[in-house]
Write a structure and sequence with these properties.
alpha/beta, 2 domains, 16% strand, binds acetoacetyl-coenzyme A, lyase, Enoyl-CoA_hydra/iso, Enoyl-CoA hydratase, Enoyl-CoA_hydra_C, ClpP/crotonase-like_dom_sf
């Protein structure tokens, strides 16, 4: 299977890219499977947090160049690739990317579909598409610019040169950098902690942040106010606050 899934802890689904011979290049088979996995997990109440990872050597080398080298524009259009990115972009559950090795092109864009990125010290992030005569097509011209600003994003996209994990951290492209052999453990530790949080609050935070990024400050703040108020209709809000007052651990059920 080019994408493997495994429930590794209560509420935590691990999604692993598995095309080692092609450095996890995103061919249509892998993209289709990844989209199917994300569509399914969106509706699965047992999944509270997702970790996406590659192998210890490579996260993903981007779109499969061999699969598109001889393609024409109409054929590329016919792939309707956005339909395969959409389940990841619209995922209502929190997603953590655990990145070892290179995350290039579509691989970097895949990482940027996550809400949190944990990178190993040896990781490299880059948008090298320009070197093969194309441009980013999985969202980097928008998401990378929003994450790191115009000038750093432009340098990455126009030169195609990757940045180190340390540089990515300083630019705001990753959340945390850890030793290479602890990346997955750290991502899973975080995922377990998030999976134990009240799911409705987690979902509202994610939805409000991304909706706000695309709108005005006033609109975003209004949305936040409404989402904040709606959470007071949840049993988890009562449980969380009562547990705090009663000095015990809360149990959240997503209600
Ligand atoms: N597509 C297809 N095959 C790829 C690939 C890719 N993106 N990246 C690596 N491979 C294949 C190689 O062709 C090679 O196959 P063979 O064994 O059949 O020759 C195999 O994976 C191993 O590759 P390397 O020998 O190059 O391995 P390496 O460890 O020395 O280097 C690498 C790894 C740095 C990732 C290097 O392979 C590389 O630079 N790959 C291309 C990266 C790239 O340009 N990505 C952008 C793609 S375009 C894109 O992503 C567009 C978009 O967003 C929509």
């Amino acid at each position: 299977m080019v994408v493997q899934t495994e429930t590794v802890a209560d509420g935590v689904l691990l999604v692993r890219l598995n095309r080692p011979d092609a450095r996890n290049a995103l061919n249509m088979e892998l993209r289709t499977r990844l989209a199917e996995v994300f569509l399914a997990l969106a509706d699965d109440p047992a999944v509270r947090c997702v970790v996406v990872t590659g192998s210890p050597k490579v996260f993903a080398a981007g779109a499969d160049i061999k699969e598109m080298a001889e393609s024409g524009a109409i054929e590329m259009m016919g792939r309707r690739i956005l339909r395969l990115w959409k389940p990841l972009a619209d995922c209502p559950k929190p997603v953590i990317a655990a990145v070892n090795g290179v995350a290039l092109g579509g691989g970097c864009e895949l990482a940027m579909h996550a809400d949190i990125i944990v990178a190993g010290e040896g990781a490299r992030f880059g948008q090298p598409e320009v070197k093969v005569g194309i441009m980013p097509g999985g969202g980097a011209t928008q998401r990378l610019v929003r994450a790191v600003g115009v000038y750093r994003a432009m340098r990455m996209m126009l030169t195609g040169e990757p940045v180190t994990a340390a540089e990515a951290l300083s630019m705001g492209l990753v959340s945390e950098v850890v030793a290479d052999d602890t990346v997955l453990d750290r991502a899973l530790e975080m995922a377990r902690a998030i999976a134990a949080m009240p799911p409705l609050a987690v979902q509202q935070i994610k939805e409000t942040v991304y909706a706000g990024l695309d709108g005005s400050l006033a609109g975003g703040l209004l949305l936040e106010r409404k989402a904040f108020e709606i959470l007071f209709a949840s049993a988890d809000q009562k449980e969380g606050m009562r547990a705090f007052i009663e000095k015990r651990s809360p149990t959240f059920e997503g209600k």
